[in-house]
Amino acid sequence: MSIVFYNNEFIDGSQPLLTVEDRSFRYGDGLFESMVAFDSVVPLLPYHYERLQRSCEILLIKPPVQFNFDWLKDSIRGLLDRNGYRNARIRMQVSRDDGGLYLPASNEVNMLITCAPIENEIFEWSSLKADFSPYRVDMGVLSNLKTTSKIQYVMSALHAQKVGAQECFLFNIKGTLAEAINSNVFIVSGNTIVTPALTNGGVNGVMRRYVISQLEKNYKVVQADVLMKDLDEADEIFLTNAVRGIQSVAVVGSVVYSDSVTRDIFAQINHSIRQVITDSKVTIDK
Q: What domains does the chain contain, in order, with CATH numbers?
């Protein structure tokens, strides 16, 4: 059984941790981050840390006094070392402390970090089939957070499985695109790359932010409302995810998409991520 990091301690993952009063279990009152480590480095950790900080502020959750960037980096590195993993998927869950009904008894937190090994040493190319989810997402500041209240996404994943797809596009209550189940969405149309504005209800994705910062060097990037017809008329569609990187959408219904621009962007992002890892290793070695 792997080692986990819970409330500032490394413990055996086979030990029971959650109580019947756990607020993530009872109310979905918590946040989570999905991260990837390559060569023991989480390349986008500054983005994850910033999002965690901001999300805790919005939800009025009070992180522990030791919570800062260096503590998070050292905790993850210690967890990877204790498990003997260099390349891993990491999940960090922050739950408001036990107690209370809808009104919490406390705004203190429980923090759990777990990891599992992966085989790839950098993001791997993949393309997939997508469909449209029948479930709608909300709009507003809370919908931009990576909370533990994700029933629409669970049901959308079941729908995708039923129709033989690997992903689904989720629309909001006004009929504009929010995101995909596990990813943010980018559309290539001519010389422009469009992604749904966060006002449409999608999660403020870590990889989304990083990809936009990289794309703006060479492409015109627009954050706007996206309709179903925009997906139908797109030249290419790709998805961004902090663990998978960039994935190309090959087929949606009867529409088949090309991927030449997406392959170039994928190579660009992998190159920049490798550089982040190299720079981080040099800093660690010093």
A: 3-117 (3.30.470.10), 127-273 (3.20.10.10)
Cα four-point dihedral sign 235, 241, 246, 251: negative
Q: Which two tokens stand for residue 179?
A: 């995101």
pLDDT of residue 283: 58
Q: Which residue has the tokens 């010093």?
A: 286
- In 3D space, the residue among 209, 212, 207, 184 whose CA is nearest the CA of residue 196 turns out to be 184
Q: Does pTM surpass 0.70?
A: yes
User: Is residue 202 classed as helix, strand or coil in its secondary structure?
Assistant: coil
Give residue-wise pLDDT tens across range 130-174: 999 999 999 989 999 999 999 999 999 999 999 999 999 999 999
93 token code pair = 């869950």
What are the pLDDT digits (tens) for 189-203?
988 999 999 999 999
Structure tokens at 92: 């960090």
Cα 30 off chain centre by: 15
Radius of gyration of the chain (CA): 19
